[in-house]
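Quick illustration, no need to memorize.
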Amino acid sequence: MNKPLMAKATAVWLVDNTTLSFTQIAEFCGLHELEVQGIADGDVAQGVKGFDPIANNQLTQDEIDAGEKDPGHKLKLKFNQAAVGEEKRRGPRYTPLSKRQDRPASILWLVKFHPELTDGQIGKLVGTTKPTIQAIRERTHWNIQNIQPIDPVALGLCKQTELDAAVQKAAAKKAREGEHISDDERRKLLSTEQSLSADPEPKIPSAISGLETFTLTGGNDDEEEKKEEKVLDADSFFNLPDDESGTDDEQP
């Protein structure tokens, strides 16, 4: 253990019961020096009961005395044999009740747009179980017809940096395994920072790249000639051609 249990309560006790400097207390409890000063002024940790580190086997009186005599002395946490091998347990990500109904939509989004992610990676990102992920992959989920894919970052289920890290890890794994990656898959494996810094793709396909330089130069004269041909004299509408057969009907 690098920091004492109930660090803020321990800082409250040290401020009230010792003459240690704010810097010493802040370094020992893992707090900011201004936060410790706020505790001394009564602006921070109001109503927090002090936690005695000596009675709780986290600090010795000799260590406190040495710190009070020497302002540069750094307090050392007392070694606790019972704490050896104890590490913080990392369970599944906690998801608030209000957002748990959004998890199937985020799982479907990850399965659809990032199929390279494993079930374990998806479970860590959105805090779900592998059976749920498998049911959505196989489209056997009870509500699969009503689920619409939604970005988990937009739903607040994970951070963009966490999603980018998982995608980059999947890309590195594919590269190590030597699998062929198509252009579409390569775009999906790019992180947000990489995709934003990439050069924009041309709007015109390369197969018809010569068409973007096509102009209508030289065609103006032809259009003017056609317009002149279409302009007719008004008198021409009244000068009807002579009827060779005659206008009078001949009697037999």
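The two ends are 131 Å apart (CA to CA).
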